[in-house]
């Protein structure tokens, strides 16, 4: 029976929902271990290796896993990124709740282990454009994305898989890296609310600039961001009309 004690936040539910059935998962930055437990209890993952750089989260995760009687399916390891992961142990990485630059560093430093990984579930807290650029440069294709609004914040998760020959669309616009294309094509309402909120924030800042500032570099950067959002919203509107 799935325990009622394990209640995931909307952000974590979004992340685990992208994990493919039958996956062998490494949960990097596992924190309390709830996502790892959910994946095994719901039959999504065959096995999970729950990893964190700090001892505190590993102790908490071990305790929760033991309480659920899942020691044989979930192993805990104290590890800086993928350092303690061996080639071939997993086929899927779940990395969530950290900044984009740290996420990229973890993936880059784990290049040897990455050879046997074919699915990445990433939920960066920042620099999503850089994460998408890195994924594509490493031969991965974003195949699905999800968005949610949880506890007053917007979150975005990416599911990427190794590129097959001829697979994947060609991205040439900056907004595609900033906001992805999957949610735009789906006309996702959470993404739309986020874009409108960001546009309003940038416009308010721009309106409060002194005339000289508005025409200088800070103002130009804000107008550029607004323009990219407008391109993205236009694509969503075109899809609605189509």
Describe the structure.
Helices cover 46% and strands 22% of the residues. With 242 residues, the protein is an alpha/beta fold. The protein has a seven-stranded mixed β-sheet with strand order 3-2-1-4-5-7-6, sandwiched between helices. Helix 3 (55-67) links the parallel strand 2 and strand 3 (74-78). The chain is elongated and about 65 Å long.
Output the strand order for the largest sheet.
Answer: 3-2-1-4-5-7-6
User: How would you spell out the order of helices and strands?
Assistant: HEHEHEEHHEHEEHHHHH
> What is the average per-residue confidence, as pLDDT, rounded to a whole number?
92
User: So what's the overall shape?
Assistant: elongated
Number of strands: 7
Structural class: alpha/beta
Strand content: 15-25%
As a whole number of angstroms, the C-alpha radius of gyration is 20 Å
Number of helices: 11
**Biggest sheet overview:** 7 strands, mixed
Helix content: 40-55%
What is the terminal separation in angstroms? 45 Å
Uncertain stretches of 5 or more adjacent residues: none
């Amino acid at each position: 029976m799935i325990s009622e004690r394990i209640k995931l936040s909307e952000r974590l539910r979004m992340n685990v929902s992208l994990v493919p059935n039958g996956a062998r998962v490494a949960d990097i930055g596992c924190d309390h271990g709830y996502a790892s437990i959910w994946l095994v209890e719901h039959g999504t993952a065959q096995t999970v290796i729950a990893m964190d750089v700090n001892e505190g989260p590993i102790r908490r995760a071990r305790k929760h896993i033991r309480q659920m009687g899942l020691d044989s399916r979930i192993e805990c390891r104290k590890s800086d990124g993928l350092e303690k992961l061996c080639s071939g142990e997993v086929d899927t990485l779940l990395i969530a709740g950290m900044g984009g630059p740290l996420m990229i560093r973890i993936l880059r430093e784990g290049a040897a282990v990455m050879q046997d990984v074919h699915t990445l579930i990433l939920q960066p807290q920042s620099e999503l454009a850089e994460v998408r650029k890195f994924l594509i440069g490493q031969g991965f294709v974003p195949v699905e994305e999800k968005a949610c609004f949880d506890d007053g914040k917007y979150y975005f998760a990416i599911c990427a898989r190794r590129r097959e020959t001829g697979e994947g669309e060609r991205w040439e616009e900056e907004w595609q890296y900033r906001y992805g294309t999957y949610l735009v094509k789906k006309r996702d309402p959470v993404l739309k609310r986020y874009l409108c909120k960001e546009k309003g924030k940038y416009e308010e800042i721009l309106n409060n600039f002194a005339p000289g500032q508005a025409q200088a570099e800070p103002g130009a950067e804000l107008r550029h961001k607004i323009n990219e959002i407008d391109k993205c919203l236009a694509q969503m509107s075109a899809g609605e009309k189509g």
